[in-house]
# Entry
Amino acid sequence: MENITEKRYTDGRPNLRRFHQARWDEPIIFELSVPGQRGILPPPVDNEIREAVGDVASALPKTLRRATPPKLPEMAQPQVVRHYMRLSQENLGLDLNIDIGQGTCTMKYSPKINEQLARTPQIMQLHPLQPEETAQGILEIMYKFEQILKEISGMDRFSLQPGAGSAAIYAAAAIIRAYHAHRGEADRREIITTIFSHPSDAACAKTVGFDVVTLYPDEDGYPDLEALKAAVCERTAGLMITNPEDTGIFNPRIAEFVEVVHSAGGLCFYDQANANGILGITRAREAGFDLCHFNLHKTFSTPHGCGGPGAGGLGATEELAPFLPTPVVSFDGERYFLDHDRPQSIGKLRAFYGVAAAVLKAYAWVMSLGADGLTEVSKTAVLNNNYLLKKMLEIDGVSAPYAEGKRRIEQVRYSWETLCGQTGVHSEDIGLRAADFGLHYWTSHHPFVVPEPCTLEPTESFSKADLDEYVDILKHVAGEARDDPEKVKTAPHRSTVHRIDQAPFDDPSQWAITWRAYQKKIKKGRR
Amino acid sequence: MNDDQATVYPYIPNSVPRVKQAMLHEVGAKSEEEFYEDVPEALRLKRPLNLPEPFLSECALKRHVEGVLSRNRTCGEYLNFLGAGCYQHHVPAVCDEINQRSEFLTAYAGEPYDDHGRFQALFEYASMMGELLNMDVVNVPTYDGLQATATSIRMAARITGRQEGMVAKTIHPAVLSKIQDYCGPNFAIKLVDCDAKTGQIDLSALRAAISSKMAAVYFENPSYLGNLEARGDEIAAIAHDYGAICVVGVDPISLGVIAPPADYGADIACGDIQSLGMHMQFGGGHAGFIATRDEEQYVMEYPSRLFGIAPTRVDGEYGFGDVAYERTSFAEREQGREFVGTASSLWGITAGVYLALMGPQGMQELGEGIMQRAAYLMTRLSEIDGVRAPLFSAHHFKEFVVNFDGTGKTVAGINDALLANKIFGGRDLTREFPELGGCALFCVTEVHTKEDLDRLIDALAKAVS
Amino acid sequence: MSGERKRILGLIVNPIAGLGGRVGLKGSDGVAIQRRAFELGAVLESLARAAQALERLAPIKDEFTLVTYPAEMGEEAAQQCGLSPQVIGSINPGQTTAVDTKDAAKEMQRLGVELLLFAGGDGTARDIADVIGDDVLVLGIPTGVKMHSAVFAVSPTSAGELALATLQGRIRRKREAEVMDIDEDALRKGSVSPKLYGYLLIPYEQRLVQGVKAPSVAADAVAADAIAVDVVRQMKDDLLYIVGPGTTTRAILGKLKLEKTLVGVDVVGKSRLLASDVNERQLLDLLQGHEAKIIVTPIGGQGYLFGRGNQQISPKVIKQVGKDNIIVVATPNKLDALGGQPLLVDTGDAETDRLLSGYVRVVCGRGDYRMMRVSCTGKA
# Structure
């Protein structure tokens, strides 16, 4: 009897997978269209209605009546299902892969029970404008979740209206603007941030109309307090800072940062996108912050959905609470209600009250863990991260710039610069070759200060075996970079598609954002 | 390590004490405490978080949450005529099936190799929207229609270099609030009067107010109050005469029968895709779209991601990627256009599924049927004494204003009576648009049968008698 | 790559570059120095380094055309790597001069090379800068001892990598890099005073990711324009503006529709050009009875704020204007390229250097500022 299992291990360690991603070579949906096919039939209009009113649409004036039917694909239902199922197979969701390669995104397991709870009619079939007495259940969930965020952060009031982290950051910047305008100090036009804060801190400040002053780290890799002192002035509106930073470092002098900015008359916003490592450990309140936010789809486990919907919670002190978006969910002792009477509010961020289903999932997640569980989440996430750090640094050619030798919190931004110098293989190449083993791998977004970057964030969701496998794969690829660099530079080979030609994306005469645009450019001979 | 800590959590694989010890040992740490060496003592929380007792078992958790949610009354139990930005359309089972696939649900920002499926699905969504809107560029969805509108107006401001915008008075109040906040204190928003009889924009008022300082003219079609705007071409022409950009907000589900804005001269079309396969979810099923022509000056002003199609090194293989990526804030931080973050991609994929299922015929039949049902309701409503429906003498799609002044009853009172009959009446407009009198905004979709409509009529007739 | 006309790579090897270094001589300009170097057993470094770079191109050798000069000016290096070059021009082997370099560069520009790769030092860079426009991509393979110019890759291998990326259309980021001029005699006598000679356009050093997330070609030009908007909107009519050399400062004057001396210092007042290419004396005269601001951009790969290429803005001028009236401008690319190192000052006067040390706010775009550390030479 052959021992198959034995052949899967070498020296007690599992061999690398002989993975191949699904490759359906699937046409674009328009190519699947067959004239006349129907995917679903709308409900027919009752005869009596038709007889009573006739063909209403035909009474529309010419400018309003659609002249020709839209050229949507015509497909039967099984064909639609098959097409999208194939596309789903060509997508590596977190449930499938060891998704620690999307550092700063806090990819963690989204419990299925929470999905199930959020899909019930009690959420799905609620209209946001229906009378509040008929929506007490969801209002209670939103209110109670706000209390949870208040306790985790120490802030006094939360809005769950932001559609995601960046929306919350935008709202925070808008509140800072409103606060200073309210006090007649509208010429406070500068927001200070750091180079390793999330790009949205700077971008949202700019969107609100602020000038942005960015600080670089000091020689040890920590945010530079002396630079902050040099940066504050009478134009300082506030500080918007991510801590722990995207490099995984916690700023030990964060409270001093707040003090310096407060002394200059500015407000302080705490971007807690990277909070997963500090739940129950340290809070915005004690550090002195006026505003903070959380990403429900990061720290609080709601799924990322290919890029949303997510949800954000924006917290404020009592002093700033009046500026929060309208409405907020309140409780009068008997019933929950939406409080629209907020004259100082910055107005509406989103159409209604936020992404209720995400709030429900986040609530359920916290309720399944409790205080001890949340602390366990953070401690395990941090342990995983430091374990991963140690193993990653054992790979020849990898370094972890900034705060060398120190512990990290939630994630680490690594650098492949040494390997690149020795082999000419770039970080992006390594990531694409890693895709041949079923991995995701995220280099980084701006700023491109760390050369050949790679940002890994294990969270608490992955097991030791997962982490070991991830490192084994990267180690293997690093070895290939030395022995067979061409293989790495032309990767991926076992993914859904091969190296994509980047040229069309920046050339207006070649880019095609829709199928119809593509057809037009082909006809013109541009593609 | 805390010795009382014996709980092993299902979501935390390495919470098994033995495993944790092995990892700590390998890292050379005695406990996780060492990892927090950078957190100063003064900032350490010295007590456990004060949170409710958890439900460690899934069974207990489910019971708890379902118990709370059971206090909701759904639009399955109650007959619903609310719209005003969130709509009860039929959600095909296939839409739910696809957006529950965890390959999509739990994915995020992988490369166009390992996440090729998502890129193709979103490219196809944009393409189908492009056909619906008759435009060549459609973005990866943003948060919702409010954001799409506010961004569209800011795009117009960037393109024209101007700092003023004209906006119809009948737009969604939440949209107006969003625009006012988002476009900032240096952008002046002027409201254009609408005709009291038709609800449509007063063209002479528009002509009087417009100038070459205007970046954009924005109106919705149909408006928040449900009336369609029949002279979109004239409005666009007036805007263009002054070098302003014409921005129109539309409900995409109407575009099987209603002409898309591009056909009457709009430069930017925007709106919300919630109607295209998303459940209402208490207002959490929204996603915004922005569409324009394929011109560089427009493309470069989008803050959202734009997915383009490209060849790969293998002949005949489709690949995708970000078009003009440096526009977005990921690449350029402060110089980028506004900001980009996690928005609503899953809804974009879902809308694509919806449109593929419906096809051209389905969209047309759906639109025609909705208009017939709405017309039927309007006819029967106006048979009730004191009720005027629709208030505006204009064409409508699925929503219309009903005036109850003639009944001597308040809208609030009427809605309470309807509620007692397990009916959610139209949105009370008394506070938002006091100039209209005692009015409510009713919404009719394809989910309403004749029985449903008749039931509303009966209940209303009783409520006003 | 698509099957269009093959891209052309130009190669110029300066055979005597680096001749003196290994045997302890500074630089190799001048026939006498060259003879001495050979006597001391110097080996032709440049050939080896050029070959090291070209090796990176071997995998795509059929996908591009290599154009080079005969024998030791490129042909030999190419053949050593198995590349079959198209040879142009003619030389006297063993007696090549700067004229040959310039002729080669001119011809290659005319042929429309995608990239002009050269193996040499500052001298070779200056020769090329003399004849080539600022829209031809150039990159230096480091070989010589003197490399104060910012036009070189960090290593021959890295140069080859960049050339490969350029030929494959993967470079979408270009930057103007300073060509420096060092007085050879002064150097040998022990005193160094580098001057800014000009600028060449280089493919941006690949310290970051390629492909979909890499910033575009336009980034630097766009940033410079945004910087100009920010600076100009804050200019006051009752102030003089002393504007140092550089392409970013050139963009500022461009916004005012004024011509900038690229490698010199100009003075602007009331949005008009008051003086061009001034020296210290002229500056001090102009400053009499006027309040002023100084606008400078870091020069060179190491980011010198003062002391490399703008010595006209002397310690006296700086003290007269005042430290708080110095506006520093730089594109984000330029700052990122410093890799976390501070800006440097070396005015020649220790007290002025100390005055300038600390932090400075750098204008990187419109309403976009970065706090940078400023340090004296020799300290980080």
Observations:
- Confidence is low (pLDDT under 50) at residues 206-218 of chain C.
- The interface with chain B takes residues 212-213, 215-216, 218-219, 222-223, 226, 332, 364-368 of chain C (CB under 8 Å).
- The CA atoms of residues 353 and 376 of chain C lie 6 Å apart.
- Residues 219-376 of chain C form one domain.
